[in-house]
Amino acid sequence: MHVQETPAKAAPTGQEAGASVLHGGPLTDPGLTSLGQALARAAHLRTDPAICLIDERGAEHRLSYPELLDEAARILTGLRASGAAAGDHVVLRLTQERDILGAFWACVLGGLVPVPVSASLDAGVVDSVRRVLGGARLLDDVTALRHHAPAHWDAERDRRADPAALMLTAGSSGTPKAVVLRHGNILSRSHGTARANDLGAHSVTFNWMPLDHVSGLVMFHVRDVVTAARQIHARRAWVLADPLRWLDVVDRHRVDTTWAADSAFDALAARLDEAERTGAGGWDLSCLRYVMNGGAPVRPRTVRRVLAALAAHGMPTDAMRPGWGMSETSSGVVDHRMDLDSVRDTDRYVPVGRPHPGVSVRVVDDTQRVVPVGTLGHLQIKGAPVFDGYHGEPELNERVFTADGWFRTGDMAFVRDGALTVTGSADDLITQGDRSCQGHEIEAEVDALGFVEKGSTAACVLDDGALAVFCALSDDGPAPGQAAERIRRTVADRFGMTVAHVVPMAAADIPRTPTGKPRRAALRAAFRPSPEA
User: Fold this and answer.
1) What is the distance between the alpha carbons of residues 79 and 142, in angstroms, rounded to a whole number?
2) Is 352 domain-assigned?
3) Does residue 472 lie in a domain region?
C-alpha cells in the first residue's frame, strides 16, 4: 500500500536514500556498566530529596538517591538471608511506590532479576507467572527487610549482558510474555533518550504511570536515575480522578518533562474546557519542554486540541513530542518535536519522529524487502535498547527476529521526510473488501460523536469476521437504537465499512492495557450477540 507520493529530494540525515530506513546515529559510551553503578553515581552527585512520591491522597513524600541506595542495600541483605541468590527471579507484588523502588534496586544491586507486577493482579495469575519462571520468589512485603544492615554489592562488575528485569507484557493481544531487559538495554535507552532530548541533572520530570509498568519504571524512573534528575511520581488513579492535578504538579514543581498516552490528553483537554468556563486555572506551564505523547496511537485532533489549550497557559507550542516504543525496546526510542502548524485536524496520522542514538528502524514488505519511502509496511527495529528475546520462548523468539537481527514489532508504519509514522498494529488492521483502516481510526471517529463518552470506544473484528464497535453512551444522548444507527452511518461514511454490531457498555467494563489501548482479544472472547447489537 502506497500512502502518498513524495517528491524526490535528498534523503535527510540518518535516512538511506529512497529507502524506508532511518538511523539514529552512534551512541556514545555512557561510562556505566550496570544499573547499580547508575544509582551509586546519582547518590554521589546529589544528596537532596530528588524523588517525590505523591500518594492516593495527594500527599508528597520525599526520598533522596542516597536514601534509596541505602534502603535497597538493606532489602538486599534481607533477601539474601531468606535464601535468594544472584540470578533468581523475584516477583514484586507491592502496593507502595517506595517499596517498589527499594525492592527493584535491591534486586538490581544483588544480581537478582525483578519481575514487577501490579498489586491488583489476580493471585492465580501471579502463581502462574511464578511457575513459568521456574518457581520465582514472591515479594509482597519489605517492611521487615528494611531493618537489616546494608549489603555489600559488587559495584565494579560489568553487568551489561545480565538480565536487569523481566517486564510482563500482554499488549492488546491478551497473551502475556516476559520481556528480558538487560542492563545494557536499559542503560543505552536511557542515555540515548537523554542525548536526543537534552535531559540531565537539570531536568524535573513527572510520571503518573504505575511503577510496575515499563513506562513508569524504565522510561521515567530508571532514566532519571541515570541522569540524576529530579523525579516526581503520582498514582494514576489520583491524576485521572481530576486530570487538572497533572497541571497543578507541573506548575508547583516547575516540571519540564512529562508524558501520557493520547487518551489521557483528551481527558485533560475536556477538563480544561470546564475549567475555562468556571474561571479555574491560572497555571504557568512555561516550564514544560518535553511532553511526550506515546504508548497508544496519536490522534491529530487530540494533539491540536491539547496544544491550543495548554498554550493558553504558557506551554510552548513545540513542547509536544509524539513518540513510539514498547517494552521490547526498553520503552520509547523514537520521538520528535512538533507544533500547531505541523499537524491538521484532518490529517490521518501524526509522525512519531526519528530514532534515538543507537537505534535504527526500517519498513519492509511481506517478503522482507525494504519498501520505498512513503510506502506502508511492517516496522522492524534494531539497536542497543532492543531486547534479545522473551523468557522461555525459543520458538517465538525465532519468529520475531529476522536472520539479520531485526525485531519484528508487529506494527505497520511508513517513512516520509525523514520521519517515521506508525499507523497501528498489524493485528488491529481492519479490512473489508478493498477498504482498510486501523481500529483506533474508527475509535477516534466514534469518540467524536457527542453522545459517546470520550475515550470509551473500542473497535475490533470478531472471530466470524464481523466488525463490532463497543462504547459507552451518554445518558442524555439518543436512544441506544438511534445511537447505534448513527455510529454505523459514521463508520460507513468515513471508512466505507459495515459495522455488524454496536455494543453499548460501561467504559470501565471495556478491558484496556495500562496505556489505554483496548484489549481486543478479550473483547472478542467475551462478545455475545444481543438483539440491540
Assistant:
1) 9
2) no
3) yes
Q: Residue 413 — left, alpha, or beta (φ > 0 → left; ψ -120 to 50 → alpha)?
A: beta
Whether the CB-CB separation of 368 and 399 falls below 8 Å is answered with: no
Q: Using CA atoms, how far apart are residues 6 and 107, in angstroms rounded to an integer?
A: 50
What is the DSSP track for 48-98?
S--EEEE-TTS-EEEE-HHHHHHHHHHHHHHHHHTT--TT-EEEE--SSHH
Is residue 475 within 8 Å of residue 469, measured between CB atoms? no
Residues spanned by the domain of 465? 433-526
Of 77, 32, 12, 59, the residue nearest 419 (C-alpha): 12
Distance CA 128, CA 107 (A): 21
Backbone angles phi, psi at 306, to 5 degrees: -70, -45
Q: Tell me the per-residue pLDDT of 93-107, one tens digit each, with 9 for 90 and over.
A: 999 999 999 999 999
Mean pLDDT estimate for the chain: 91
Spatial distance between the Cα atoms of 332 and 324, rounded to a whole number of angstroms:
5
Please count the structural domains in the chain.
Answer: 1
Backbone angles phi, psi at 417, to 5 degrees: 55, 40
Cβ atoms of 113 and 164 within 8 Å: the answer is: yes
Beta bridge partners of 181: 165
Q: How many CA atoms lie within 13 A of 273 on its CB side?
A: 8
- CATH code, domain carrying 508: 3.30.300.30
Tens-place pLDDT, residues 149-196:
999 999 999 999 999 999 998 654 455 789 999 999 999 999 999 999
- Residue 416 phi, psi dihedral angles, 5° rounding: -150, 140
Does residue 418 lie within any of the structural domains? Answer: no
